């Protein structure tokens, strides 16, 4: 089984996780910028974090044979803190970098006016840089939050096929399926979606425009949930090519729209050794 985890926060995971992910078939991932738990108090903290995502974490993943990409953004929660909103002004210099394949995570947490402003400005940046967008949906009031998210995306002019709306469940999938946006599902050990509910949704809605991720972070989560979902699909009668589509081809197709996917891990290592002039790039 070859796996591309389209949403996982490796900054908060160990080297044991990298080893077990590789053993389970994970060969590529996208790490979106997010809230770190401890509130950040200055723009400089974000700059250091973004540098770690484009540099250090990519290097660390390559040691385990995994191609690391990231998405860069001011997350919705910290968009409410005036000490952090200056981050919006530093985003453009990151959105041109190799390894940055999307704007994200953006979207709503508590649906405040400040979140509206940050979300709209970052959708404009995605349009300007022709990058896909990873949109987080709120954990509370999920249905209303998802509908408002879809309205804002439509008004932004960003094409639906460039947007994944993430953390969906049975109550929000239909609206996103109808919108033309990609549908993201985070499979967790004990909240939100699990593998069996995911398989039931794949049976009902099919495998097009679906991304399955572990969204593993510093909370209770499991970086092998992508693999476990693949096993649950096989047990439910899907074949190997269905699993390969959901766990590999779909994320490659979605993030490949950036023109910046690096899917040959040895070459990712070569970039860091200073010899990388033959890096494989997806076509725009
Ligand atoms: Zn996340």
From TrEMBL:
GO terms, molecular function: hydrolase activity, acting on ester bonds; metal ion binding
Domain of life: Bacteria
Record key words, sorted: Hydrolase, Metal-binding
InterPro entries: Metal_Hydrolase, TatD-like, UCP005295
Keyword ATP-binding: no
Family to which the UniProt record says this protein belongs: Belongs to the metallo-dependent hydrolases superfamily.
Protein name (database record): TatD DNase family protein
The organism of origin for this protein: Saccharothrix variisporea
